[in-house]
Fold this protein.
Amino acid sequence: MSSPKEILRKYRAFPIRRFGQNFLIDKGILKKIIEVAELSEKDIVLEIGPGIGNLTIEIAKKAKKVIAIEKDKRMVEILGERLKEERVENVEIVNEDVLKFLPSFKPKKDYKVVANIPYYLTSRLIRNLLEAKRKPKLIVLMVQKEVAQRICAKPPKMNLLAVSVQFYAKPEIISFVSKKCFWPVPKVDSAIIKISEIKEKEATSNEKLFFKIVKAGFSQPRKQLINNLSKKLKIDKNKVRKWLLENGVLPEKRAQALSLKDWEKLAKSLSNLIK
């Protein structure tokens, strides 16, 4: 694996902090990401933030095609040159912000997402991918360790991000990655996260209702569920209390203590309450 520092020096470039550019320098971790993605010669892979292309080149060796989305024009130029040098021909480079790209991305075939992403994008990116009409069949990402733990949380440590991801799919932490495996060295440790068993379904009125109640429940995490739901849904407290108890949820609980199944039960019965 080529050294990011040497490659950038060759092109007289440097990492830009606001783009979250921390390059993976551990070849073993790179191999682990590829292994977890279970790539085959039939796979189309969307990579976000390819940077200098070390991961891109490894993905391209296994997959049918790689669509690499890179916001930084300098990195686009470097990546293009490296692909020519390595004689890699199955990579399409798109110079665009991924959040602007995704709404127009309408693949006709299944695809996977494999990336060492800029960490400031994590929550929005995962949400956009899981809410898309054509969802990826698998997502493998390098993310901040604390964010990975939040995504995979269980009661009594649930949070809005965890519920949002687990509603659509099964997330799991594959391994933790030391900050020393990157250059420049970031302030935080990382984790490889795998999101699989992604439900291929479009938004429905029930789904919108589900997220309406979940967001209401987590609106003030330290407050009791009955207070948050009554205030945000504009429903009388006594009605909310009865509704919660009928669904086996203690009104005094906090949102973090509820499981995904609890939220789903509440969402199904909420339509009767607000008629």
Summary: The chain is about 40% helix and 15% strand.
